[in-house]
Amino acid sequence: MFWFRPFLSQCTLSAESMYILHVQGQRQFHDILSHDLCTGGVLWYYRPATGTADIYFKQLMSLGSAGFRVISVDYPIYWSHDEWCIGFSKLLDALGLDSVHLFGASLGGFLAQKFAEHTKNSRRVQSLLLTNSFIDTNAFKHLPNSKLYKMMPGFVMKRLVLKSFPRSKVDAEVANSIDFVIERLDSIGREHLASRMTLNTMPAYVEPQTINAQEMKVMIVDVLDQSAIAPKVFEEVSKCYPEAKVAHLRSGGTFPYLSNDQELNMYIKVHLRAFSQTRYTAGDDFEWGSNSAK
Q1: Residues 112, 139: contact at Cβ < 8 Å?
Q2: In this structure, what are the phi and psi dihedrals at residue 3, rounded to the nearest 5 degrees?
């Protein structure tokens, strides 16, 4: 991952209510928080249970250089989905952001959907981009009960995570992405990992009718080669969002944002450009205070 070191030197890190934010774009972090930009859309990245916020460094660099305002977030320890949604809502309040676009992979995609449910009255979420995600934690019923992770040793949890990775031969880029995620997994503390595994397995499901009623744009990423998410799980997500756009990736495995970033980034840019020249744009292409507000 030779891009990773340049990314660390270019991005801005900030702590806000114990969240770690990786911000990339033409504007530095304090400019993103300026008053005239806070009412617009920002693309937030939610990482899977196995990664850290910088797992999306290729998206942050590509979209940031293209003029989009993008933030990847590492959130603090939470033990329930409702608690997580309340915490993230408070973070957006602290940053002055009233509308967002959410990209989530695996657990991150599930949490993005739950947040869209949580903010259904304010319609704070303008669009969802889901990669290898799910609508029901029952997809992980083969894992230990969610109540056990608080007491489980870190090495046992990491072993459970590693078992979900492909064991057969994969393309070099996919193999590199797995190696990178394993490296980031080693940096996650036991309690943080226990929190993520709890959120990943505690009984819960998404109510897609609540999200569909908001008429938000949804993009589902379909990785055509081997993934940690079973095909039937992807089919369930697709059925729940019949109006969603589907981005078909020829390859990418479990972590396409690392292994097939160019193709994925193209789809993300196309998705976001549907909001160009509106108050929900994730770019700097809207003139605030003009008569063209939408």
Answers
A1: no
A2: -75, -20
- Please tell me the predicted confidence (pLDDT) of residue 70: 82
Whole-number pLDDT of residue 41:
60
50 backbone dihedrals φ, ψ, rounded to 5° = -90, -5
Instruction: Calculate ∠ Cα 235-237-240, nearest 5°.
Output: 110
Averaged in consecutive runs of 10 residues, what is the pLDDT profile of the chain (294 residues)? Answer: 43 41 38 38 79 83 81 86 92 83 92 94 92 92 92 93 81 87 89 94 94 93 77 90 91 87 91 82 58 45
Rounded CA-CA distance 141/184 in Å is 25
Cα(94)–Cα(90) distance, integer angstroms: 6
First and final C-alpha spacing in the chain? 41
CA 159/CA 240 separation, integer angstroms: 32
- 80-115 burial, b at 16+ Cβ within 10 Å, e below that, comes to ebeebbebbeebbeebebbbbbbbbbbbbbbbbbbb
CB 48 within 8 A of CB 107: yes
Torsion angle in degrees (nearest 10) through CA of 250, 255, 260, 262: 130
pLDDT at 25: 38
SS (H, E, C) 164-228: CCCCCCCCHHHHHHHHHHHHHHCCCCHHHHHHHHHHHHCCCECCHHHHHCCCCEEEEEEECCCCC
Give residue for tokens 């990491």.
Answer: 158
Count the residues in the chain: 294
Q: What pLDDT does 267 receive?
A: 93
